[in-house]
Amino acid sequence: MSPPSPRSRCSHRRTSTSSSRAPSPRPRANRSGASRASPRGLYLGQFDLSLIHPHPRPEPERREHGEKFLAELESYLRTVDSARIEREARIPDEVFQGLAELGCFGMKIPVEYGGLGLGQYYYNHALTMIGTVNASVGALLSAHQSVGLPEPLVLAGTEDQKRQYLPRCATGAISAFLLTEPEVGSDPARLRATAVPTEDDSEYVLDGTKLWTTNGVVAELLVVMARVPKSDGHRGGISAFIVEADAPGITVHRRNAFMGLRGIENGLTSLRNVRVPRENLIGREGEGLKIALTTLNAGRLAIPAICAGAGKWSLKIAREWSNARVQWGRPVGEHAAVAHKIAFIAATTFALEAVVDLSGMLADEDRKDIRIEAALAKLWASEMGWRIGDELVQIRGGRGFETAASLAARGERAVGAEQALRDLRINRIFEGSSEIMRLLIAREAVDAHLKAAGDLIDPHVDLADKLKAAASASGFYARWLPQLVAGKGDLPTSYDEFGALAPPPALRRAHQPQAGAKASAYLGDLGGLSQRRTLQLLDLRGTGDSQTPMDAASYRVDRQVDDLEALRSHLGLERMDLLAHSAGAALALLYAVRYGDRLRRLVLVCPTPRDDGMPHSKRRLLARRASRTPQRRPSTTRRTRSNRKR
Amino acid sequence: MRSAIAHLDVPVLLIAGELDVALPPRPAAAYASLFPRSEFAVVPNAGHSPWQDDPRGCVDTIARFLD
Ligand SMILES: Cc1cc2nc3c(=O)[nH]c(=O)nc-3n(C[C@H](O)[C@H](O)[C@H](O)COP(=O)(O)OP(=O)(O)OC[C@H]3O[C@@H](n4cnc5c(N)ncnc54)[C@H](O)[C@@H]3O)c2cc1C
Predict the structure, then answer these.
(1) Pocket test for ligand 1, best of A145, A224, A433 (most atoms within 8 A of CB)
(2) Contact A28, A366 (CB under 8 A)
(3) pLDDT per residue over A373-387, tens digit each?
């Protein structure tokens, strides 16, 4: 461990006993070798079940360690005065110190570098917990660990850099990430800060202005993104540097103030002739943006974690208030509109936590590139977090709009719903705005195809390579297309390990005890029938409680016909038998008309085909029935209307 | 659709439920007759889900047709 730095805000160093109880972390696998992540698979019509089954779980020793830490953190957080942070618009020194004592600045840093080695899953949990207390504290810790120095160092740093800086970071040398500039936000590739190598190549000289540096005002270490000009021996490009915050030439011009997150130490920082040793380059020249983006892959998960915390807190307040507040003779929670809001907050919080947990564990397993998961989670969580905050304000009514301090001054419970809303707003903007997340997600959706066909399109690739590319692209499409039209789920034995599929509602009803004997006889025979392998059961769902509306059946029917045909050829059946029930008949008939020569036999059970296939006799029957039924409704209406006229 | 069905050279089995209000036996029989090669069966005392009301009879009918 390096000696305590004089600039550290936290004098306390974590004792070595606390680090010895930590398990040794697993080695990090090579990220570039990671296989395709689930949303990418989904774009291609594949559902990669292995991502959630078996559901990833933390290893036992990791779990014990993590749970113990969370318990300590929870009891510490009870002593944190969130109202004071809001009132004074700063996080008090003793909170910095308390967090450092617990090891909070090194939650994700591996144990051998003095951190807690918690991994993303427990780190997320810690942030969620902190998110229920104060969002500024969450931002302090996540700006330090999710985007600050530790993450890029763990990802791309040399062993020397890790040994030198990670222990400092772990014990409270706060770091900040300096990418944004007054002129560049969402499009960082145009950043202007420069890093010019000195003649002897021993140093870089940094110049530029960096805006909105979270933690920048109090940081001891900075990650600065700057452009190295291309020259002899220098490939140049945007590069990442480790910079000591007290280096000559660095000035924090002001501390910025915001709508929310009032406690963060966010600055406007300028660098003038700042000399940085060559060894402080992270990765290679030109890799800065890649490092920044890779950092953000897992880094972005901090936001969903904090949003999940805000959701939990909101749910608690919503429940308590909607029970306590009585209007129109009832607790407001019993009025349907308010009940809906509570249900929305509860369900969304549950989902937020599930997303955070799953993505955290996937990140820890390190077997997948999780950038799309992280982008999806960041986009959705930040949008939902904001809506939860908004609904909470609404549930609290006028008190939702009133500050906690003002409520307290009137003798009411100090609930800062408006603060929660203000604190949540930034999540839709920083670490990639919602608009940018959508672009990224959508681009990935088409990227699979571009990648497969990429070399075919690239004019600089020579013919031999093009042929190779063509071969591999056709392989790709040969595998991809059938999966798209006839996914794994269409194959009879695909999910055998899950046991029998839940029967469709009609069968489920038949399965009830009173119909027990009948049902098993039927199911048994049905099983026998389906083992012929030539029989496809269609739309048994069309019966019973969850009746498939005809419209729904018919609007999808056109595609389904082709899917069905693809399935037939996929199963290698020359001709197939079809059995269709109820609305499923529409599909079967359309198939019969279009692909009659591939149909061997057709069984229609109580068919209710679409209008165009409906026999006239049935229409007549319906018409007759309609004319026979006394038209009570219309006549009542008529009478009422005429009464009113009178 | 109707004319297309009239030329369908595929054996069709249409099963109706005696008490099915969605497609009662008479229109069901008419419907079955639209197909050039059709068999028609009514499951007595059965509604819109005949295999529930008479599992054995219903499945036997289907099995006989398919064998
Ligand atoms: C409280 C706070 C803390 C921050 N902390 C840090 C930090 O620690 N380090 C750091 O480097 N930066 C930090 N930032 C900067 C933050 O990441 C940027 O604000 C963010 O990247 C957006 O950039 P911008 O504000 O310049 O918006 P702009 O890029 O100017 O965008 C303005 C609007 O246009 C939209 N837009 C831009 N491009 C497109 C497009 N192609 N398609 C559709 N819409 C588009 C954006 O979504 C946005 O709505 C922080 C900012 C704040 C407010």
Answers:
(1) A433
(2) yes
(3) 899 999 999 999 999
